[in-house]
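LAB NOTEBOOK - FOLDING QUEUE
OPERATOR: T.R.
BATCH SIZE: 2
PURPOSE: Compare the predicted structure-token outputs for two unrelated chains run back to back under identical settings.
PRIORITY: normal
REVIEWER: second-year student, initials M.K.

ITEM 1
FIELD SEQUENCE / FIELD STRUCTURE:
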Amino acid sequence: MEETISLQDLFKTLRKRLLLIAIITVIAVTVSGVVSFLVLTPIYQSSTQILVNQTKSESPSFNSQDIQTNLQLINTYNGIIKSPAILSIVIEDLDLDITHTQLHNKVTVSSVQNSQIITVAVQDPNPYKAVDIANAIASVFQKEIVTLMNVDNVNILAKAEIPENPSPIKPDPKLNMAIAAVIGLMLGVGLAFLLEYLDTTMKTEQDIEELLGIPILGHVSPISDKDLKDSKLEITNRRRRA
């Protein structure tokens, strides 16, 4: 006989296992909060912006071809900024106790679309160090690019600065806890249905009807201890009267 599950049965299962679902969700959120606040290291980010042109021209204006050429060179500049030619000097100037690869992983270089502005972002557990590294990269790039690419028109538009109350960009405890709540809820619901599926015990008359496929003609009501004592007392009294 084909077994069907109604929407009402689903809601009954959820209501029956509501406490289990709530416990799993609370545990997931709690673990996520503890890990986010106490285990994961806060990471701060600082950034600086650089404007790069080609060699200065005697003409005060730029034509569209010059601008297009500059835009095509942006990817080259991005690669140079994260190259050992720049980062090794930054490590030496700041006396950083890290390798070029480690510093390379801390730095992100991006450019504004259709512009010659390059943004250098640095992530570090120390917000002050992130600021120092970002400014050092911009300064070293400004000096070294003259030799590397024959570009002598590099301007630093905005230096990296430490805010009054620096806040980490990651981890985001609220976001992590929200994701954990969703995952915990999904796991709780899945576990509730799994337990219900594995539970083959007969609990109600409807369970027996569904299993046997025949109607129930009657059932024996449960007798409480109080009713049993009252029945015994009544039988004793009847015997005494007789």
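ITEM 2
FIELD SEQUENCE / FIELD STRUCTURE:
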Amino acid sequence: MSTSELPARHGEPPAGHAELMDGVYRWQRHFYDLTRKYYLLGRDRLISGLDVPAGGTVLELGCGTGRNIVLAARRYPGARFFGLDISAEMLETANAAMDREGLSGHVTLARGDATDFDAEALFGLATFDRIFVSYSLSMIPGWEKTVAAALAALSPDGSLHVVDFGQQEALPRWFRTLLRGWLRKFHVEPREALRDVLESESARVGASLRFRTLYRGYTWLAVVKIAI
């Protein structure tokens, strides 16, 4: 059995997907934020809607280069931030960004699998006031498990915030075809069932769901709020 075929232990990233993401981003991480700002729409709207309570805790699943955490930390300076990513390459860039922005003392980053993580072991916290996932579910195999894992790690009265590619419902077919072809080059697949999964998971835990379609279906933005 090769290394990529070995099953991951609880909380450890699966070797095959981790290696794939490291390969994809080994060089891209150096210019990732410069290019993605033009088509990863809705991220700043997600951050502005986090409404983090004073002294609150915020976890990003699939934190990548740390771009979102930096912006969120500026907006909510009293909060503590945590980031999880499966790619060691991306985390290297994210850690450098935290050092550069003077945020190392307020941000903790760890390598792990967003579908199966042990928050207590990684961060010393079992739950968080806010958890967000920005354009990562479309890259995660078994992404439905990430939704369930995130909800399990929410504090009472916490909320899960998700932004990702929609189905481009009101956009021209030629645009959808070009976009899907481009995204496949980076192992990205917009999740057609995202709303259905969020609805079923919200019902399972007794949470409310607010789901918005932006930019003619280019982007889907959702907030799952735990009811207390």
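REVIEWER COMMENT (ITEM 2): The radius of gyration is 17 Å.
FOLLOW-UP: none requested
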